[in-house]
Amino acid sequence: MPGIDPQIICHRLHVNPAIKPIAQKRRNFPPERVAIIEAEIDKLLAAGFIEEVSYAEWLVNVVLVAKKDKGLWRVCVDYTDLNKACPKDNFPLPRIDQLVDPTSGNQLLSFMDAYSGYNQIMMHEDDKAKTSFIIEKGTYCYKVMPFGLKNAGATYQRLVNKIFKERISKTMEVYVDDMLVKAPERADHIKNLAEAFSLLRKYNMKLNPSKCTFGVSSGRFLGYLVTQRGIEAHPNQIKAILNMKSPATTKEIQSLTGADLYIYLAVSDSTVSSALIREELGAQHPVFYTSKALLDAETRYPKMEKLIFSLVVFPRKLRPYYQAHRIIVMTEFPLRSILHSPDASQRLMKWAIKLSQYDLLYWPKTTIKAQALADFVVEFTPTAKEEKMVMKSKEKVDDTSPTDSNPPNDMWQLHVDGASNHKGAGAGVVIITPDGTLLEQAITLGFSASNNEVEYEALLAGLRVAKELTIKRLAIYSDSQLIMNQASGEYMAKHPRMI
């Protein structure tokens, strides 16, 4: 497959000369898996992606990762050793919030994805041999930029910035391999698409038709659902929040947390959580708290695998941080050894490949810095009063466990919604007491307002009622991701009427 002209861009590996090259011994596979590997190598050779190599100083193994389709396998190369020897490329990646905000309010959107995007960039001639890998029938190296290299994302961002520099922030938004063409007016969309296609053709970048969507009013971009109305909650994200289960006791949190971490990890039977921390002048400052409710199968992972799983899932939400910074994981648990054990399970091998593109360091546990850990425990664990209430409820019920979806006994719920049209605007507020009693309130606004503004007014009205009732614990529910993130501080309101 033709790729990007190397005169435009190619990928370099700036290996630290002080680090001695590592040549791994060939890993043995059963005959049926050897056949799968060799078939994939034949495809890569036919596509011109790889070539045979001799006397390679850097040499790594391939790993087989099971696909979701039963019986199918993905052949991957584990570049962990090579990535450790390469410094971090600090090329700035765009801020996701600054990309997502301008995509809302457009009448038509088109979402595009490159075909094997990384493989369209050539490796520099001097660095091809450093990507060498070994299989039963020989040693090979990549002629194109493979997946799994630490700085591949930065190189790809350089490329798309160069290709679309005249269109970015005007008719396009681009984040690594995610491309979006937008048009505030329907009549302009074809013209904007033609300009994007012209640039793609000029630089010889190929698209994957099966992953492209053209001329739609809404779609998912960088994890957000963008529509003409604005930024909305994606159904999958709503489902994850509704299924979220909090850790039951403080002990569950503390038993598996690492110490002195730039990323704090915590697991329970039903939840994995993390706190991303930065250090400044010896003081720790939280950057991001993240939590994920485990699916049924995931709850059965061993606790050590849950810790590793948390490292895998949170880069999906915190991708810019993982790509732009080195993440130091200081823990008493041998996570790195487990990930890179030759006897690791298929699941662990798959996770190791996903994590290999990030600059992760595993350092031994030292002392606990109380402030960050305390903040984390406060964020994700119930109070002593709640634990006592849970214990009492367990004593009262014989052979019956409370459902995980039930809120704590003293938790009130606030549900808000709003809508506006040419006839006016109104909002609804429903408060559910701990014993299930419904308190309902309907509000008619005496001024014109957008849907987001009406949602905001509904939330404010509900909070005023909660304050009057001196409610201590309140769970808030709304279908507007924009309003909820503004209320929590994740988004910053820009329009004066929303401040």
Automatic annotation (TrEMBL):
Residues in RNase H type-1 domain copies: 408-499
PROSITE patterns in the record: RNASE_H_1 (PS50879), RT_POL (PS50878)
Superkingdom of source: Eukaryota
Location of the Reverse transcriptase domain: 46-226
InterPro entries reported for this sequence: DNA/RNA_pol_sf, Rev_trsase/Diguanyl_cyclase, RNA-dir_DNA_polymerase, RNaseH-like_sf, RNaseH_domain, RNaseH_sf, RT_dom, RT_RNaseH
Keywords carried by this UniProt record: Endonuclease, Hydrolase, Nuclease, Nucleotidyltransferase, RNA-directed DNA polymerase, Transferase
GO molecular function: nucleic acid binding; RNA-directed DNA polymerase activity; RNA-DNA hybrid ribonuclease activity
The protein's name in its UniProt record: Uncharacterized protein
Organism: Prunus dulcis
Taxonomic path: Eukaryota, Viridiplantae, Streptophyta, Embryophyta, Tracheophyta
